[in-house]
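SAMPLE LOG
Freezer: B-3
Tube label: C17
Construct: single chain, 275 aa
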Amino acid sequence: MRATLRITLTACLILFIVLFALKSLIEDKWDQYGVGSFIEHKVKSTFRDGTVDYLPSSAGATGDKVVVMARLEKDDTNWVAEKLSDWQAALYTVDPSPSSHPQLTTPSNKGHEAMAYLTYIIDNYGALPSILAFLHSHLSAWHTDTPLHSNVDALRMLKLEYVEQNGYVNLRCNHNPGCLEAHTHNAHVTPAVYEEVFRGTSTEFNRTGHRVQPPDRVGASCCAQFAVSRDQVLKRPLGDYERFREWILHTKETDAKSGRVMEFLWHVIFGRDPV
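STRUCTURE (predicted):
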């Protein structure tokens, strides 16, 4: 009996030590994933036949706004037409097979979603809608900053007048990951990479003609889903966007690495401070 009790107490002590050691990590992931809000709204929606109480009513006819998206050929993106029918849609297939004939493709399957985002701006620079929303191809993911992690909910909750007023809006409000102090010492966007990306663009020199020094820190809420206004896009010349795409195409960085670099630079490209 005593031996059993001793073993039980030892096991409990070990478990307590492990959980205490992992406390910060668990709290960090709980915050990143919005676990508390997700559980709350998932339970509520379950008892309301899937309905949620934080969304405005669906809009009507297709408006002066577009969803821009990179997709793999295998991705099911029918949800865009079904659930966001009031938005125009520009869905780029980045890996078309020889037998497929998608309406929109990119010059290369590199840079993750950035290649599609930039291709849309370049090809439509002279005829952009008022609002552009750049999304991933998944209907839901942990980083989508709505209670149920839904991209549909994110766009239905988006205040278009706020986008037009501010120019750029990250669709993730949670600063974790990306904006915390430790994250802004960015391993992807080093001063050398920053200088390389913006070389030859309107960012390279300031209004007095002096070369802009790369920032020591760069931070933004993950994960490359955001909305911008047409006016904000047009504050840069077309050549800037062409230069950004050229960097992705020709950099020695991998598909994933070049995409991650762009993920942490969209806010700078669209007029925000590095941090």
